[in-house]
Amino acid sequence: MPLERTLVVVKPDGVRRGLVGEVISRFERKGFRLKALKMTWMTREQAEQFYEVHRGKPFYEELVKFVTSGPVVAMILEGESAISVARIMIGVTDGRKAQPGTIRGDYSLSILENIVHASDSEESFYREYKVLFSDLEVVSDY
């Protein structure tokens, strides 16, 4: 299995609820390695760039407003099949429908305030991580 990297973002609701450590812990226990980690408050410009793929959809403005409503914790994780495994671990977008045992299934009852974001493809990872990290902030190896 190839090593991949993925971006995971604990959204403002997860930060407000004190779930950052829980989210990081789940990924570390699974075997992922942290390659970058930071707390930041996304600007509107960053949020628009981050959610560019949803521009024009009815929920776009609500997404941008929500993700800029408080700090987020962003991390780059590395591991085997990181993108698909992280997506399984977080669960489906709507927390009301997410399986118990997933992050969203255990902590969310909303489609908007669903605790966490994870890149859905390699292309998305490369587009998204550059919104939140410079290449100098990413650890190459340790």
How are the SSEs ordered, and which strands pair?
Blueprint: E1 3-10, H1 12-16, H2 20-30, E2 33-40, H3 44-50, H4 60-67, E3 72-80, H5 82-90, H6 103-107, E4 116-118, H7 122-132
Antiparallel strand pairs: 1-3, 1-4, 2-3
Helix pairs in contact: 3-7
Polypeptide structure, described:
This protein has 7 helices and 4 strands; from the N terminus they run βααβααβααβα. With 142 residues, the protein is of the alpha+beta class. Helix 3 runs antiparallel to helix 7. The protein starts with a strand and ends in a 10-residue tail after the last helix. The mean pLDDT is 96.
Strand content: 15-25%
Do you know the CATH architecture? 2-Layer Sandwich
Q: How many domains make up the 3D coordinates?
A: 1
Strand order of the largest sheet: 2-3-1-4
What keywords describe this structure?
4 strands, Alpha-Beta Plaits, 142 residues, alpha+beta, 4-stranded antiparallel beta sheet
